[in-house]
Amino acid sequence: MGSPLFSSSGEIQGDILFRMRNSYVEIQHATIEWFRKNQRRDLPWRQSTVSSESLLPTNSVSASCVPNPYHIWVSEVMSQQTQMDTVIAYFKKWVSLFPTIATLAEASEDSVKSAWSGMGYYRRALFLRKGAQYVVENFAGKLPNTAAQLQKIPGIGAYTAAAIASICFGESVAAVDGNLVRVLCRLRCEREFDPKLPKNIKTAFLWGQEIVAAGPCESVGEFNQGLMEIGARICKPAGQPLCGECPLQHFCGAYSAKLRGELAAIEGIIPLRAKSVKKKQERVLSVVHEFRPSCEPNHTLPRRFLVIQRPDNGLLGGMLEFPSLTYISSCEREFDPKLPKNIKTAFLWGQEIVAAGPCESVGEFNQGLMEIGARICKPAGQPLCGECPLQHFCGAYSAKLRGELAAIEGIIPLRAKSVKKKQERVLSVVHEFRPSCEPNHTLPRRFLVIQRPDNGLLGGMLEFPSLTYISSSSHSLNSTEEDESLRRLCKRLGADHGNLVLIGHVRHIFTHIDMEVRAYHAVWKCSSADNSNGKAGVRTVRSCVNDVERLVSTSLATELNIAASRIFIKSEEEIRASAASRLLLKILSNVTSDCVDNATVNHENDQMHLFNSLSLS
Q: In terms of CATH, what superfamily is 422-616?
């Protein structure tokens, strides 16, 4: 909860992030300086430059020669899934065969596949060719100079676009690959962070962008490349990171946590180690058909064979193979139905059946499979195979009959692992503003609320100012530490209010979080609300119209490091009619009860402290 400055790792991590944010420019300088001294100089694409005048207008005004964008593009695509030493040889071969984007666009598909042969993942080569054709048709053969435009090119994703735009054109954009995700994770001491989840990769991009945007970066391209090399060579994915050699050691939250004894080790914990994937076991039957002229007993004519071109998508997309069929596969026996890539795979299986021939009613076919899955081939308990209309076509049922499976349920597909809910304790302060000339409180009650970030938990919803002080993913606190943490948070969220009144504890259970909120109430005396409309009983309450509201809002915006535009003053009626979370409404119900109201009113003696102190300053 609360500002995006504080993640679920709790108040301790919040302090780490606060200190780190003040060091963003230093992190830039340290990374660039290290890269200039330690970069790999044997990479041919780093030695290849072109005149900036030959490119589209660039964001870098000083460079007369810049890295060749085409070469950077090719190197980035080749570096995906391939060791760097292997890439160097293939890169040299590639640029000798296809020296420019135009020559690649004109090349045949077979020549492109041949140049790529042996590196695997052939779709990368085909996308390079397709992308080159797009650049020739739409950008006159020159790569565009922004990440946004580069992503329009087939085969260029967010990372590759950012790498080209920053290295070649100086655009201030973070290029976040697996190495950067790991480095940023450790800098921030992010625990329980799975670097393989797409949403987490997006989150890591925002972390990187925050550093890049902190100030005018001397060289964004060198900063991105520096972080990549630090991730590959020092803050390594496997084995113990070489913290003693790291130029970012003094800014690293994970390193500090290890020194304090909060972490036994960094590797495998920050970020989480990716689960090892067991290789699929397949047995395939293949038949090689050869054709020979009957009148050629000496076989002097070329031998001829029948080959089949594989589908463009999937394994060995578009490549040639001999006629083959899989007759044993372990793939569906270790199939996790929760993985996004597996959901896409299952879609292709279904599409294969639908596309097999003219379907009498695709809608009824889809609905039929859904009902069979819900009522017969059930997610929990033993499936009712005897009632299933697809029993005779079912591989799992046949495997069970043959004794290869003891049971189907929980094995095909794999049973989803039960996820233990994260335990969080949150401190929340409800700031209420009351006109000093209204002792009977007949005017609408007004409260300060914050709009949460658009992404993440309760995205875009309203909440009272809140911060997490204990999380099951963070270092556990003893009672003394907990009291001290609460005291600090009350000071930060209380905006220097003299008497915060505890109104109780509210428990709220999300899908993956069990949250207990410790709620406080702060009542501020302020000038009258606007009554200009003249209608009895109806008063227009405007956001932040008086000095007290404005000063409290400014204080919280500074403490929580959020934009003032995300802070609002609303009446109870307006809150209930807007995008308020159920958690906020629970707390609001406690605040607006008579007993809490009376208790709070009795503690209003020092409410003008903030107003007086800030006004004098």
A: Nucleoside Triphosphate Pyrophosphohydrolase (3.90.79.10)
